[in-house]
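From the pipeline queue, job 12 of 40. The input is one protein chain; the requested action is below.

Action: predict structure.
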Amino acid sequence: MPSKVLLIGTSKGLVEYRRSLNGWAIGKVHFQGMPVSALHVDEHTRAWWVGLAHRHWGQKLHYSADEGHKWQPVPTPVYPAGAMLKPGKPASLKKIWCLQGAGPGRPDGLWLGTEPGGLFYSDDNGLSFHLVESLWNHPSRLDENQWFGAGRDFPFIHSIVVAPGDGDHVYIAVSCAGVFETRDGGASWAPRNKGLVAAYLPNPGAEVGHDPHLLLACRARPEVLWQQNHCGIFRSVDGGQQWDNVTDEQGIANYGFALAVDHQNPERAWVIPAVSDEERVAHGLALCVCVTENGGRSWRQLRSGLPQEYCFDIVYRHALAISGNTLAFGTSTGNVYLSENEGEHWSCLSHNLASVDAASFG
């Protein structure tokens, strides 16, 4: 059944769109004026989770079990005493980047990724969190030449992928460090970065030190992983053991942040490219979505309904969402676009929001 709710997390609140017979329209604004740092809709419990970045009080965490009618605050994760960024510098929470339910086998489990690079886990549906010490104490994390900030002061965990049917099998992505995998529920972790390129490092093929912008897996074929990376677009068909560079060398599907995958067809994915790290604007000042239907061997540009003149928009890593044939994204200048035919044509839902950091279907 097509989704009837679209949530857009902005720098000024959470905007809720509802679909009716007349189309999509804003139904409500939650946390008005507050920057939304993270947004998650749990596919099993249907709970809505929101991380907020209060300017005075710091990071806060809320959830709703009834589609936003009532919100419940929960304690924010805290780095324990003794957790050090480096000798003599205690770690403290800077930002909540992402949340992910732990799957049907762990109905009260919740993973949470933060800056400065700490992964937290809750086994009581967010009432309490503990730092995953095995990752925090991983030898690579303790080496500031392997885990380091990418456009920010500290490394941060922005993607968590739980394998369908196996709550012990989890991937995370860290900027900058790369992809890590656990098969024992977080007791141990191994880097999964073979085949990736880090052009900014002395050794571009280093085991750790890569900058994935977003990591996703196809639910029907969870061994097929995709990542939009600082140095291109990469795909793995063997659970991250080997990555292939599927960047469009003849086109513009290269640098960017946003990524969506078809959860039934492992060959299909969408990206929204920007010019470069130095020039973070749409290519040719014309907004474009690129799609591949053959695992990245070729890419096609989708422009129908998108602005093609003097458009400076870019789309951040969590601001592109998919539900069946419907895709939606929000931009850095507060525009929201939606397609109900897999990106072939787009309609604008709003020109007037604040900068968009996250999008999710409810």
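Job complete. Residues 133-136 form the longest helix (4 residues).
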